[in-house]
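User: I'm new to structure prediction. If I give you an amino acid sequence, what do you actually give back? Let's try with this one:
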Amino acid sequence: MFGQQVPGELLAEPLFRSSMVALLPKASPVEGPVSLTWLYENSLLMMQNQDPLGQVLHRALRHQALKPVASLYIKTYSVIADMVLAGGGVGVVDLFTALRYADRLTILPIVEPLPFEVMLISRRDHVQSRAVSRLKQVIRNKLGQIARESEARFMIPATAEACGAADYSAGDARSLAQAGW
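Assistant: Good question. You get back a string of structure tokens that encode the predicted 3D arrangement of the chain. For your 181 residues, that looks like this:
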């Protein structure tokens, strides 16, 4: 799951941290990082505010006094990418969604950090088995590999990282984002 607050009886362990990226039509002449203002001025397709990543995006827009004028808020990240493909504007999505569209859209970093985390949620009162510990490491390694490949291929800054075994119990990506990571 993407970083969200969890009840105290659960353990939320971050496996991966990165920043969201911009999706533009393939024929776009824009190169390099784009700003939220640029995205806003170029028909930014909006995520729902109830979505964890949507909350990060909406908060960043408010911080810059940019008020979305969209009458349509999109729930599914792949629908945002499909709308960009259809010429409906530009989008902001997580790195994994962007990678699925890499051959059909332009993926660019965003100047302002829009962080997200991939979290493993487990019960606090259950000891994790060796198999679960090994699975977590495999997932971290794979996500780290994806991040390194993305950095090289799409000029995405080296902000993506596989996380160690830190315990962010009852924590969330929003609090980390506010702390400035």
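You can read the tokens as a compact description of the fold. Here is one thing that stands out. Residues 130-154 form the longest helix (25 residues).
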